[in-house]
Design a protein that fits this description.
Layout: E1 2-4, H1 11-26, E2 36-40, E3 45-46, E4 49-51, E5 69-72, E6 78-82, E7 87-95, E8 106-113, E9 116-124, E10 150-159, E11 164-169, E12 180-188, E13 200-202, H2 218-231, E14 234-237, E15 240-243, E16 247-251, E17 255-258, E18 264-267, E19 281-285, E20 290-297, E21 311-318, E22 321-328, E23 334-340, E24 343-345, E25 348-350, E26 357-359, E27 363-364, E28 367-369, E29 372-374, E30 381-383, E31 399-401, E32 404-406, E33 414-416, E34 423-425, E35 428-432, E36 438-441, E37 461-471, E38 474-475, E39 479-480, E40 484-487, E41 493-504, E42 511-514, E43 525-536, E44 548-550, E45 556-561, E46 568-570, E47 575-578
Length: 579
């Protein structure tokens, strides 16, 4: 175990610089611009039972916001709060029990305003509950459950500031849930729907309709895209719900515009969704593609990584944009390849089976900005420059900025698995109870067999200006992850700068450097710096944890500057901490 102390500056100057940074950063906003207000169930008036906090894996409390929730066990029980804003929409994050067969239960929630019923909503646990180890099963006999929560959303409410909102169990005939757990409620004042832009073609125009009588708009969508490509017009999707049961190919220079993520819904067909070719899938196949302002609502409730991803996938070439899309109940939100200069802005990933947004093969100079992910089944945001397919661009210089990640039921808030000079900046991470808020790792392959293409870390990988709360949870394959983890797994990581992080209430270690070496495959961490890191409370779920932990198999060095990191533990004789 080696420590080197460099007294380049006096302790007083270091302290002044550090606390000056804290004061400036305290005035800064981190994460996405959130247009909704969240009300936590545990802070509401209720006739139900408060659960939590709990931090052990495979518990509904651990997968809850703040590790607390409220359980309503009988008809008539409720939660109640006073709205602090004007709003016209609501999201309720809930859990219902599963059946022993694994196909979910049902219940009815009533939404009341000032004592008067305004809407009833059927809810189900069909799209939650997974069991066993990755890639999981829907059979409860697999044990070790996860993915407890789902969400319902509704619009056309008329809520004023000061109104008392009650969410009550109003079970009807056919409802069979023994209980309903509420985690949180979001209220939002959504703007009016957009109108059709000039020079546009609507998928509802009769000239695009096929002979399908089941409200299936797949062929209409395809026909409208073909005509828009021919005429240079925009594809318009108006207010409404449109069934999609097949791939939608997006060619170069196409623009698809919806009326808004709350108003235009592309929805899968549950009866055919087990067929991977009949899902809602928008496939980029060109450059200068622009899609905006609609929702994709899938019907997927299992994970099979041998099947292709649905939702938004493919290559978006150069200078494309994806804006203000809501995606839920799909395998991934977005899985993008071979794109340069792509900008993803203002999108919401909810309750996906796997990743929120993953930049995979050949992604360069592309940005994920002002996006949110909640309840994903793998990394909320990830850069994975794999070489499983031929890459058009050399991967790197990608950025996640001003994004918010919350409550994935597997994996991490944001992860970088290689590439040149990628960055995570100005983000907020909270309640990452199944992994790390931020993971820098060489675990996944990024080179071909002869190493002629090697997309391992290069340049300067930067993580800066982020707030991390209650993260660093239990990963069933890696056990307890740190809130920020550097995993030097059989390959080197060089050129890592981590600056201005505020890490609070870590479930395990706040920061760690770990390694899984195999034979002579030893990864080395070099040219790595932690600067202006503030750690406040750690190990709230697991005992004997640290502010910074270096595992015994780690190799390399780490420089720490101007940071407040208590309880540093270095178990490796091959790792040096320079302070």
């Amino acid at each position: 175990m080696k420590y080197q102390i460099l007294d380049i500056r006096s302790k007083c100057i270091t302290a002044i610089l550090f606390f000056s940074t804290l004061i400036c950063s305290a005035q800064k906003k981190y994460g996405a611009i959130i247009p909704w207000t969240t009300y936590e169930a545990e802070n509401m008036k209720t006739t139900g039972t408060l659960l939590g906090p709990e931090y052990d894996p495979y518990r509904v409390e651990t997968e809850s916001s703040g590790q607390k929730c409220v359980k309503l066990v009988s008809k008539g029980q409720f939660i109640e709060f006073t709205s602090t804003i004007n709003a016209n929409s609501i999201v309720i994050r809930y859990n219902l029990p599963d059946k022993k067969e694994g196909n979910g239960t049902n219940a009815t929630l009533g939404i009341y305003k000032n004592g008067t019923l305004i809407q009833h909503h059927k809810i189900s646990s069909r799209y939650s509950w997974l069991y066993g180890k990755y890639p999981f099963t829907n059979n409860p006999d697999g044990g070790v459950p996860r993915n407890f929560y789902d969400e319902m959303r509704a619009i056309n409410l008329k809520i004023r500031k000061g109104d008392v909102i009650r969410i009550k169990r109003d079970d009807k005939d056919g409802d069979d849930a023994d209980y309903c757990i509420i985690d949180l409620v979001d209220l939002e004042n959504v703007a009016a729907p957009l109108i059709a832009p000039p020079n546009s073609l609507s998928i509802t125009d009769k000239i695009f309709q096929g002979m399908d009588s089941a409200n299936d708009y797949t062929e209409a969508f395809r026909n409208c895209i073909a005509k828009a490509t021919e005429t240079g017009k925009t594809v318009w999707i108006p207010v409404g719900t449109f069934k999609i049961t097949g791939d939608i190919i997006l060619p170069s220079n196409i623009k698809v515009q919806g009326a808004g993520m709350w108003y235009t819904n592309l929805v899968g067909d549950e009866t055919v969704y087990s067929d991977a070719s009949k899902r809602v899938r928008l496939i980029g196949n060109g450059s200068n593609i622009h899609i905006a302002d609609f929702a994709i609502i899938g019907k997927l409730n299992y994970r099979n990584d041998k099947e292709p991803n649905d939702a938004i996938v493919g290559s978006y070439g150069t200078n494309s944009t994806i804006s203000r899309i809501w995606i839920e109940h799909t395998k991934v939100g977005m899985w993008i390849e071979d794109s340069k200069g792509l900008k993803i802005t203002g999108c919401r990933m909810r309750n996906t089976i796997a990743d929120g947004i993953n930049f995979c093969v050949g992604m360069t100079e592309s940005t994920i900005e002002n996006c949110t992910a909640r309840g994903t089944g793998d990394d909320c945001f990830a850069f994975w420059p794999t070489i499983r397919d031929k890459q058009q661009y050399s991967p790197g210089h990608n950025l996640v900025t001003n994004c918010t990640a919350q409550l994935p039921f597997l994996a991490n808030g944001a992860a970088i698995y290689g590439g040149e000079s990628n960055a995570i900046k100005n983000c907020s991470f909270s309640d990452i109870s199944q992994g790390s808020a931020i993971l820098i790792s060489t675990t996944f392959p990024t080179a071909n067999e002869d190493n002629s293409i090697n997309n391992n870390f290069s340049g300067k990988t930067v993580v800066e200006d982020c707030v991390i709360k209650t993260s660093g949870g239990f990963d069933h394959e890696w056990e307890w992850r740190a809130a920020v983890e550097i995993c030097v797994d059989k390959r080197n990581i060089s050129g890592l700068e981590i600056n201005n992080l505020y890490i609070k209430n870590s479930l395990s270690n706040a920061i760690d450097v770990i390694a899984k070496n195999v034979g002579d495959k030893i990864g080395v961490l070099s040219d790595a710096t932690l600067q202006n890191i503030n750690v406040s409370n750690y190990g709230i779920a697991a005992k004997n944890k640290y502010g910074l932990f270096i595992s015994e198999n780690a190799h390399g060095s780490l420089v720490i500057k101007g940071s407040d990191i208590p309880a540093i533990k270095n178990l490796s004789d091959n790792f040096t901490i320079v302070r």
